[in-house]
C-alpha cells in the first residue's frame, strides 16, 4: 500500500493493551478520523498506519497513563466481586453437628425448618415425625427436638454469617489500601 494514503496523524496515544489511538487524516479527506491501530491489524490501511506510527513518522506517541478514574473503576469492580462472593457464601449450604448428627444449614435449610418449628411450638407435629439429617438419615424428632434444632441452626448461621461478614470487610479494607491498577486488578477475592 502506498504511504501517501495517510496525509497526517495527530494525538497518538498508547492504550493499555499496546494499541495506539490517534486521529488520522486520510488522503483525499478534509477532516481527521479516529482510529485505533494495533500490531495485529488485518487491514492494509491499519498495517501501514501501525508501521508508520512505530517508525515515528508522525512524531512521538504519548505513553499510556493510568488515570484516577481507571483506578477507581477497577476498585469498584473488585468491590462488586467481593459483594458477589459474600452473596454466594451467604446463600450456600453448610453442615453443622448437633446431638451427634450432621445437619444441613443455610437459607434453604432454614426455610424448610422454619414452618416445621412453628408447628412444633404449637404441638402440631404429626405422630412419628422425623427430620432428615445431612447424611440422609431419618431422625425421630419431638417438638422440643425440632425447636432445639432450629435454635442450633440459627446459631450456626449467625456464626457463619459473621465469619463471612468479617472476611468481606477484611477484603474491602485490604482493597482500599491498594494504589496501583495492577495491584487492584490482581487482588484475589476469596
TrEMBL record:
Pfam families: DUF4376 (PF14301). Residues 74-180 form the DUF4376 domain. InterPro entries: DUF4376. This is DUF4376 domain-containing protein. It comes from Salmonella enterica subsp. enterica serovar Eastbourne.
Amino acid at each position: 500500500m502506498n504511504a501517501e494514503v495517510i496525509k497526517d496523524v495527530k494525538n497518538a496515544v498508547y492504550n493499555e493493551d499496546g494499541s495506539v489511538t490517534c486521529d488520522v487524516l486520510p488522503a483525499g479527506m478534509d477532516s481527521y478520523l479516529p482510529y485505533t491501530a494495533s500490531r495485529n491489524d488485518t487491514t492494509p490501511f491499519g498495517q501501514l498506519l501501525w508501521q508508520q506510527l512505530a517508525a515515528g513518522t508522525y512524531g512521538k506517541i504519548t505513553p499510556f497513563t493510568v488515570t484516577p478514574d481507571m483506578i477507581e473503576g477497577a476498585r469498584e469492580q473488585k468491590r462488586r466481586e467481593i459483594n458477589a462472593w459474600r452473596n454466594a457464601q451467604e446463600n450456600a449450604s453448610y453442615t453443622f453437628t448437633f446431638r451427634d448428627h450432621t445437619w444441613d444449614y443455610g437459607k434453604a435449610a432454614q426455610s424448610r425448618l422454619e414452618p416445621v418449628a412453628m408447628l412444633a411450638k404449637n404441638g402440631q407435629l404429626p405422630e412419628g415425625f422425623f427430620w432428615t439429617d445431612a447424611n440422609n438419615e431419618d431422625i425421630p424428632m419431638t417438638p422440643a427436638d425440632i425447636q432445639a434444632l432450629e435454635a442450633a441452626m440459627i446459631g450456626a448461621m449467625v456464626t457463619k454469617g459473621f465469619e463471612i461478614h468479617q472476611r468481606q470487610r477484611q477484603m474491602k479494607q485490604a482493597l482500599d489500601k491498594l494504589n496501583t491498577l495492577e495491584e487492584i486488578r490482581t487482588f484475589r477475592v476469596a
